[in-house]
Structure prediction request, 1329 residues.
Amino acid sequence: MSAEGLTQPESAEEAHATSLGISNEKMAMWALIGSECLFFGALISAYLIYQSRYNAAPEEALTPRNLFDIPFTSVSTFVLLMSSLGMVLALAAAQEADWRRFRTWTLATALMGATFLSGQFYEFTVFAAEGFTLTTSPFSSAFFVLTGFHGLHVAVGILMLVALWSRSMAGAIGPQQVDAVENIGLYWHFVDIVWILIFTLVYLIPAE
Amino acid sequence: MRPQGSHREQRRLRRSWFGWVIVAGLSLSACAQDYPQSALDPAGPIARQQDNLWNLVFVIAIVVFVLVQGAIIYALFRFRERKDDDGQIPKQVAGNTKLEILWTAIPALILVGVAIPTVQTIFELAGRPDGDPLEVRVVGKQYFWEFEYTGDEGQGVITATELHIPTDRPVYLTMESRSAVVTDTGAGAEGEARNGVIHSFWVPRLAGKQDVVAGHVRELTIQADEPGRYPGACAEFCGLSHARMRFYVEAQEPAEFEDWLADQAEPAVADFDTELAAEGERLVSSDTIGQQCIACHAIDGYDAEGDQVANQRIGPNLTHFASRETFAGGFLALNEENVQAWLDNPQALKPGAQMPRLGLTPDQIDAITAYLLSLE
Amino acid sequence: MTATAAPSGQRKSLFRRPQAEHGFWSWFTTIDHKKIGILYFVTAFTFFIVGGIEALIIRLQLAQANLELVSPGLYNQIFTMHGLTMIFFALMPLSASFFNYLLPLMIGARDVAFPRLNAFSYWVFLAAGIFLYSGVFLGGLPDGGWFNYAPLSTTVGPDPLGYTETLAQAHAVRMIFYSVGIQIAGIASLASSVNFIVTILNMRAPGMTLMRMPVFIWMALVTSFLMLFAMPVIGIACWQLLFDIRFGSNFFNPATGGDPVLWQHMFWLFGHPEVYILILPAFGIVSEVLPVFSRKPLFGYTALVFSGIAIGFMGWGVWAHHMFAVGLGPVANSAFALSTMFIAVPTGVKIFNWLGTIWGGKLRFTTPMLFAIGLVAMFTIGGLSGVTHGVVPSNYQQTDTYYVVAHFHYVLFGGALFGLFAGMYYWAPKVTGRRLDERLGKTHFWLNFVGFNVTFGPMHIVGLRGMPRRIDTYDTGFGWEIYNVIETVGAFIIALATLVFMINVLYSVFLKKGEEAGNDPWDARTVEWMTSSPPPHYNFAEVPRVTARDELWHRKYTPGSADETIRVPAGGSSDGGEEEHGAHIRMPDPSYYPLVAALGLPIMGWSLLTGGTAMIVMLAVGATITFAGLVGWTLEPGFENGEHA
Amino acid sequence: MSDIEEHPPHPGVGQYVEIGVILAVLTAIEVGLFYFDMARVITVPALLALTLLKFMLVVMWFMHLRFDSRWFRRLFLMGLGLAAGVYAITVLISVTGGAG
Ligand code: HEA
Ligand code: HEA
Ligand code: CUA
Ligand SMILES: [Cu+2]
Prediction:
């Protein structure tokens, strides 16, 4: 396969190689990821600024320490991390044109993503039951908006993976699919590395 | 709005050669105009320090301006295509490294020259001034300024819109912002003001601006050389009556200032010359109308709940209301007519004012006005 | 959408594919960058008129002391919308229209990298404008100023106790229009920035190396990067704002521990790159116009390119110069003072290199040239007042006065808009096939030039003499009246100038009175002038092979003996014949889906005005429409099968 | 044209799995550090270093940045660098409350 995407259905210049010899779509994805750095950076910095503003007396405050369930989150973190592995294995399969294996790993990746999301959903409901919601404190607002937007990204990723899977079931297999897998994979890994940061900055470090 | 301000400005401008640029080029009216709020006419050391930097950077800007525009105009005439053009293509010059380095380096050097005094002055102006400053807490509220003279010297005096200060002595302001917040999250007791929008305290002739941000305490030093009335304004957009959130700084000789402060520290007078004023006093101390006024306004001697500090109320302290020349953010002259109109319908005079229309009868208005005007 | 590529298999799209290349309906489905460019232009210019009319109301209200033409509440909406409209819906999309139309032409490509994404950007931008202005009917327009400081914009509002009519209720609604409107516009900018970056880096004609690209393209690239990185910042800020006002979060609410200053950081972190997003395209245009009408190559091409890049980077390190009076402390203020001042260095390099370009040339004073020189002169004034702002202690006096208003109109109007007008006159022949009338054009320029200085010049003085900005009225006794009335007169001169421009377009283009242009009416230097005017759908029958910077010039002229430059005998440039050559070239088919996908966004926005089930239903409807659009889009092949001629 | 470059092929399945295992182990160490009772001056930098390592592993191998075009690297690093720079300053100014 020609990974450098000599055929771009979107590009008007079908017959010509691109100026830099790299695929338009992949470049667009990297540009988007660069942009997303600023997006999540903003959320993370809001969190860092507000992480110790609890709007309650120290004894009653809902803080990272008494809220977070580290073992639970560690497990979902692990699941998300492994989904990244699933993603590269799916890509490797697609590159070798082993579309059955590709579908298995794609589905596995999506499932791991879904597991992570359900974990997050569960975590949110537990927090809400403890009286920790968006409105509780600057800390809570920053926490929910940061992790919520991350979750939204995971959800979008799952949608794209499921789309890939079902298109492949419908017989869409070819070099263009490989490109698509690679680009969606980039997105997926990016969402994963954001979580790598969140896990440390939000969950592990604040414990005092 | 004494004309001396502008004379001084013009005199000062004429002293320096570039002053002519302003006087001739910028000042479009020939006769002596009156600019009481001009930032170019400092009346104290702080403003003067800031103005000195302005003079420096302004000269530089004018020089660069003249050079660049001069070069453009020269080039336009010198290199225009002439009628009798020979059809020759001009020499194709694509650059000149030496020149390019030069015009990168020279502006950089000039800017270093500006940067050094800038940074110096930033640090000089920051923080509490040396010596023995008068301390005043300034509270910005929608839409007026409140001033509390703190410390032993201040005797707890609270006033609004007109800030009296002694001359030749730094006045150290600590500033915060409060608004009437009535959402379920923000409110304290009814009538209490907290956590307001951003305002900016600005008396151009005494000092540059300082924004006042809720959740932070900001500081600013002002100082006046000579007695006078210096107008100021809220300079950060703060809502409907931002334009009507003005104030005055009244600089007085130190002795005069001491007298003023002592007067203000007295409670409101309780004996009245007229029956009408006494009737007004009864209304304001009554449980019906009075409770409302007192919920938002402190008048020493009539404390409602008692536990609210005066400057946490929504409205201005009225204890010595009649000692002011203006009210409601300094844009209304304090006279009977205006006060009556105000009591009748504050929003009609000042849209967005945080005082409700209380539905007072004309008689009540007359009485309360008479009372308020007796609060010297 | 970028990733899931359409299959190469033989399949039809779900619905009948739109095919029209001409006529009214073709505008709704077009994915031709040239048509989209024209759409952008017409829409943006309409918004410019709207913003201009708002400006005229501002000026009328301030013409004299104590006027009450509009109420304070209305005034606040008008100046807020004036700022928002001019920045987000006039100037940015005007630049986008130039990028759209010209990028592919100037790099020798047939279209942008993602034509449908391009159409999507346009429709999203239009949807954002409609959404924002729908506030007129749905509860009020934003009234917190274009930078909308919290907590005035969030929990407190302009009338917390609600004594003035129903303002307290309407407040949240207005802020929804602000936050969602800007976010939707941001999506459009983000999508175009990705598109332009990929197009410039990846779609260049053979031989068009990066250092052979016209400076306009370079500036488009830098601008696109600025958009790419700045839009998410304002996006998050607007989300946080939205959560604060609509769902009770605590980001900027000091009463519950939030920090209003964080909003300011976020806004200006976006806001300052944004002002360079507005000016750099104009710098690019000037860098194209000056050489052509000086008949000399650009002086210091490399320096111009790198100073543009430097401005782009440095622009990220100066944001707090909008916050000097906020009280960030002397250390932060000093640091930002330094970075602010030194941004004058790369900008100066540009000014001086432009001077170097006209120096020793043979200047032809056509209308585009006049506007380009106007930019150099007027922007310098605005830049210099910018440097005076950077002197922090002096800034304490200047900030939030009309002196600042003067600064930013000199750079925005005298800079960006003059540049864009230069570009309009310069490329109008390419776009329309006809030159705009020179006599009307020069009238336009001079009226504009005079009106501009009469309007904004006095603002310097009146600002230094103590007039704060954003006041709906002022009292007598401050000595401000005379300046204000002059400014108002000036604004009407600008309006007159704008009318002359519109008449010119009408006269020259629609009444076809303009001179027929031919391929290369200005004896220009870059490759877009090699194709016909207007260019065919596919731009170039034969993609040009580029061998030099100023490719076209080199095809027309060669160095002669000694210092001379001589014209190459006719035939050297590729003239005519495009239509026949190109008949076989097939461009991607039009598509409904970008429009459909864009349609859902404002519906989701409006849902926030309601509550409960209605909100959920509307959100779902909007999301479904957008999702359906995106699905249709990914499944749709670039070309309809079987018709591949 | 010098714009076009060559780059080495992407890693294969074996390598992917290796990286996956390393990632899992690093995460385990992180969580271990959390429970391990040690001075924060040690754990916090250690946690940050491990996080950075994981970050790099995913970016370099899973996202192939190590093997791909330098243009991708530029795009990513520009965004990452800008974000790190401007937000660090914002957080710094905000938590010091502008008192400095
Ligand atoms: C097109 C948009 C644009 C551009 C290009 C600029 C360019 C600059 N701006 Fe401006 N600015 C705005 C748009 C723009 N600005 C807007 C919209 C606002 C107000 C927002 C609001 O509050 O609503 C604003 C506000 C603003 C402020 C805040 C004012 C305040 O509210 O207190 C400051 C402060 O430093 C500033 C500085 C600068 C500087 C230093 C430059 C520099 O880039 C200028 C550099 C150029 C030159 C200096 C001229 C050419 C150079 C030479 C000829 C070399 C020699 C020069 C010297 C040696 C000095 N600007
Ligand atoms: C690109 C940006 C841009 C442009 C081009 C302009 C153009 C103009 N601006 Fe604007 N302005 C801003 C950006 C811009 N402005 C911003 C960002 C603010 C800050 C907002 C804030 O504080 O939040 C501001 C604020 C601002 C203020 C300060 C308001 C205040 O603080 O209270 C003023 C006051 O005079 C003003 C005036 C003008 C005028 C007179 C024009 C003129 O140049 C306009 C000229 C255009 C026309 C006059 C249109 C032509 C119209 C016709 C030809 C009509 C005929 C047609 C029909 C009837 C169909 N502007
Ligand atoms: Cu208070 Cu403006
Ligand atoms: Cu700026």
Q: What stands out?
A: The CA atoms of residues 266 and 300 of chain B lie 9 Å apart. Residues C 272, 275, 318, 321-322 surround copper (II) ion (ligand 4) (CB under 6 Å). Chain B has eleven helices and 13 strands. Chain B has a mean pLDDT of 84.
